Amino acid sequence: MPPRFGGNLRLTRANSRVVRTIKARPVDLLDSDRAAMLPLPPVPPSVGWSNRVRLGRDYYVRVAGNDYSVDPTMIGRMVEINAGLEEVMVTAEGRQWARHQRVWATRSIVTDPAHVQAAARLRATFSQSRPAASEDLLRDLADYDRAFGVDFGGEVA
Length: 157
Fold this sequence. Notes:
Oligomer: single chain
Distance between the termini: 103 Å
Shape: elongated
Strand content: 15-25%
Low-confidence stretches: none
C-alpha cells in the first residue's frame, strides 16, 4: 500500500493513480523532484510588511485596513511598523511601543488598554492650567532691529 501523507485517504488515492500528463504516479516522482530543488538560502527571506510613518494625534497606525493603537507618548514622532503573519509591532528609538495580534479582517480597531490610560494621563496633564507669561519675557522690538543691523535713521517704525 502507498504511504499515507497527512492521513488523508483522498491524497493517498490521488498519489497512487497514474497521471496521464506525466505518465507516472506523483509518489514515484517525489525523490526526483526533491533532487531537482535548490537548497534553501542561508538567510531566510523577509516576510511581512514594514513602513515608517509619523504617528498622528489619534495614536493609531493603519495596517491592511485595520487600526492598531500605539503608546501616545510617541505622537508626532517617526515610528517603524512591522506587520508579520501573526502580529503587528511598532518600534521607535530602540524600543517597542506597541505589539498586537494581527487581525485579518478589515475595518477593525485594535486598542491596548494601557495606551488609552496613557492618553488620558497626557490629556489631563495638557489641560492643567499653565502659568501666565511673565512680563519680563517681553522684549522691545528695537532690540531685534539692533541685533540684525536694521537702522531706520533713529525713527521708530
